[in-house]
Specification:
The protein contains 29 helices and 27 strands. It has 785 residues and is an alpha/beta fold. Strand 14, helix 15 and strand 15 form a beta-alpha-beta unit. The longest helix has 18 residues.
Length: 785
């Protein structure tokens, strides 16, 4: 006789009722706990809206509410998702593809705590002994302290010039590089400060940034800078921080060069706005610090060694090699520390990141690498009954590595956790306990649950995902003949080992190899910078909720001019960021109400009804439609609207046709960029790149975020590009793209120092016939050869 089930054991489902985030249409779904559930559907069908913007967002919001009001003041305010009810939620840990912090002090080692453990290890075993763990940290400077110190017993001691040792290199302040600033790029010496001598972005002649110089009394603002006395020039460019009073306000005056170094040069280049980045690249040269050789560490920190290895050399090792070095340390006094550090380093190798080094900047990791690095924290966690949420964890993974990732996901599930995965790859969908398929289409045509069940039931379900689940591309019957080649000789960036290769032109070239084999180093490092080559990388699109496809692609400009011409008014009226904006919501369409430590509430603007424009602007029409009507049009409808008649705008039409060509016909022109999925953003960038005049187009994993059914459309687009005279080079892991190539360059045979060599060059048919590389074996298996 079975005992009655305990009430606490009945909560086996996460229930979602009436979810309406983004394009979701009153979605209700039950998701089994402690199982691996994969969410599928075409790009833009609502997968991320359901998993990230609804389930994970509400879990995080509710956890934040458990903190005191004081603590919540320091946390981001999260709005409640648009959903009727959510039941059975557990703590959600999001492991997404967001790039890791753009802080130039953040490395793989600091992001995973491996550096912290290494520092303790060296402080215990390093010879000579130089001090506690902080003495090995490149973020901690050496300081001298004078004053009075009080002990725990109340005893006071006078100290003078007591040294607290830090590991930061004093020359580069732990940055690893020093900067040489070209003063001529900061200052036009033929002008006076009052006439705009400072040419740094944001330093306008009448702004506060310049007034602090002109009104400080240290320099004469009325004479050209070149006529400054030596004393004035020194004060203008290099003066130490000094308190001054401007317009009755106490402020700090500082020379222009140290001010620029603190405000701009301490930030990561990739995180800057484009115009700031362009200025920094023009005005500054970065070179490895001559004192620490780029290691960021002080001489003392570099002098202490364990078995002949310094902490700088340990951090520069490939992680798989570092793991072996740590394993050889046999000292009972640090055994627990060594064991924990070994587990962390072994996790890197296990997850396919053994080719990285701990000193690698976190901001330089790809989206897939960043996501897997975040996984390191959770693999050894003792927590159970947690919901882990993954966003395409197979991105950037070779078929050989996907099996390894699948095992890790299953291990998280087997510890008693709920694992939710948004995924397109059939190899990853195949391991699911439960599948939720969204669709049937994208954008307004999606947002519905079209299937729930097992993988076998999905195959016979008749949905778009089910019909394409077992699709396998065949090798092309014939390949194109190259019209030339880009010669690469002696390539040695990162792990490339003096690579000599000819990249054919006039054909579709696919560059393959396991993650870390050197594909990006070869193509982005040796090919992408050449004249006539246009590269579309995996960098994120930056844009606020005011940015949309119309503003990002630049098509809004000709559209505004067409409206202005048809109505005899100014183009600025048709911009929600300019004169035409609703004065109440300032063109945002919503009004935010600040509720202190609680989440701000956004509600549609009552004056414009969320349309963002003044009512008078909406009276102006172009071929019967006002500007709001146009921004609400899907791309496919806008193509027809701008193709003929009174509303014919060739400049806008050219952009729209490219958007339709990359499979974004369902997007509306005014949809905020912040609501686009990762795959949609990359295709938006691709559509922009297709407009460039370059004859060689480099694409970095264009299948990222693409549904199985969309890959065929992508291959058709690549063919059209090649047939129109564009040479296309694709870095890709998807076997369908490999099978469709005219020429394959395979790098390997492994990752890191085990890679960096060309292991195959030739046609896909030759690669399959030889089966001499991992890629060849997996491609042969894929096409059933």
């Amino acid at each position: 006789m079975t005992a009655a089930q305990h009430p606490a054991d009945s909560h086996d489902l996460i229930r979602v009722q009436g979810a309406r985030e983004n394009n979701l249409r009153d979605v209700s779904v039950d998701i089994p706990k402690r199982r691996l559930t994969v969410f599928t559907g075409v790009s833009g069908s609502g997968k991320s809206s359901l998993v990230f913007a609804t389930i994970a967002a509400e879990s995080q919001r509710m956890i934040n509410e458990t903190y005191s009001a004081f603590v919540q003041n320091f946390m981001p305010s999260l709005a409640r998702p648009d959903v009727d009810a959510l039941e059975g939620l557990t703590t959600a840990i999001i492991v997404d593809q967001e790039r890791m912090g753009a802080n130039s002090r953040s490395t793989v080692g600091t992001a995973t705590d491996a550096n912290a453990m290494l520092r303790v290890l060296f402080s215990r075993l390093g010879d000579p002994y130089i001090g506690p763990p902080n003495a090995f940290s490149f973020n901690v400077p050496t300081t001298r302290v004078s004053g009075e110190r009080e002990s725990a017993t109340g005893e006071r001691t006078v100290i003078e010039n007591e040294v607290y040792l830090g590991g930061m290199c004093p020359r580069c302040e732990g940055m690893g590089s020093v900067t040489d600033i070209d003063i001529s790029q900061l200052v036009d010496e033929s002008r006076s400060l009052a006439d705009g001598a400072i040419t740094v972005p944001g330093y306008t002649a009448d702004g506060w940034m310049v007034r602090i110089f002109t009104e400080s009394g240290f320099v004469d603002p009325g004479i050209p800078v070149r006529e400054f006395s030596a004393e004035m020039r020194e004060a203008f460019l290099y003066k130490e921080p000094t308190k001054v009073k401007l317009a009755g306000i106490n402020m700090t005056y500082e020379g222009l060069v140290p001010r620029i170094q603190k405000s701009m040069l301490s930030k990561d280049l990739d995180a800057m706005q484009p115009h700031i980045r362009a200025f920094v690249e023009r005005a500054v040269t970065f070179t490895a610090c001559p004192e620490c050789a780029g290691t960021r560490l002080s001489e003392a920190a570099r002098s202490s060694r364990i078995a002949g290895v310094s902490i700088a050399e340990a951090c520069a090792m490939q992680i798989s090699d570092l793991a072996a070095w740590v394993a050889a340390i046999d000292d009972p006094g640090v055994a627990p520390l060594v064991a924990t550090l070994r587990r962390t380093l072994d996790s890197f190798t296990e997850i396919g990141l053994g080719y990285l080094s701990l000193d690698r900047l976190a901001g330089t990791l790809s989206g897939g690498e960043a996501q897997r690095t975040k996984m390191i924290r959770h693999l050894g966690s003792s927590l159970t009954d947690v919901t882990y949420v993954f966003d395409e964890p197979t991105v950037g993974l070779h078929p050989h590595d996907i099996q390894r990732m699948n095992e890790l996901l299953l291990r998280l599930r087997d510890k008693g956790n709920t694992v939710l995965v948004v995924e397109h790859k059939p190899e990853a969908i195949a391991i699911a306990d439960h599948v939720v398929d969204l669709g049937p289409g994208a954008g307004t045509a999606g947002g519905h649950i079209v299937f729930e069940g097992s993988v076998d039931e999905l195959r016979s379900s008749g949905t778009l995902t089910g019909r394409h689940f077992d699709d396998r591309a065949a090798l092309k019957p014939g390949v194109r003949t190259p019209t030339g080649a880009i010669a690469v000789r002696g390539a040695s960036a990162h792990n490339l080992q003096g690579v000599d290769v000819d990249v054919p032109l006039g054909v579709l070239v696919v560059v393959t190899g396991v993650a870390g084999s050197g594909k990006s180093s070869l193509i982005h490092g040796e090919v992408a910078g050449r004249e006539g080559v246009v590269a579309v990388d995996q960098g994120a699109i930056r844009g606020s909720r005011r940015s949309n496809p119309a503003t990002y692609t630049g098509m809004l400009e000709p559209i505004r001019k067409a409206f202005a011409k048809a109505n005899g008014v100014k183009p600025a009226l048709f911009s929600a960021n300019s004169e035409g904006a609703c004065p109440t919501c300032k063109g945002a369409g919503v009004v935010d109400t600040d509720l202190g430590m609680l989440a701000s509430v956004s509600s549609p603007c009552e004056d414009c009804g969320g349309r963002r424009f003044q009512s008078s602007v909406l009276e102006y029409r172009l071929n019967g439609s006002n500007i709001t009507d146009v921004l609400a049009m899907p791309v496919s409808e806008a193509v027809e609207f701008f193709a003929t008649g009174e509303s014919r705008v060739p400049a806008a039409l050219a952009v729209l046709e490219r958007l339709a060509d990359v499979g974004l016909g369902y997007l509306t022109l005014g949809q905020p960029l912040s609501t686009l999925s990762g795959g949609e953003r990359q295709r938006l960038k691709l559509a922009m790149a297709m407009a460039d005049t370059g004859k060689v187009l480099v694409l970095d994993e264009p299948t990222s975020g693409l549904h199985l059914a969309d890959v065929e459309q992508l291959l058709g687009m690549l063919d059209r590009l090649v047939e129109s005279g564009t040479s296309v080079i694709v870095i890709e892991h998807h076997q369908a793209v490999m099978a469709h190539a005219d020429w394959i360059i395979d790098l390997g045979p492994g990752a890191g120092h085990d890679g960096g060599r060309v292991v195959f060059e030739g046609t896909p048919a030759e690669l399959v016939a030889q089966r001499s590389t991992l890629t060849g074996q997996h491609l042969a298996e894929y096409i059933g050869s």
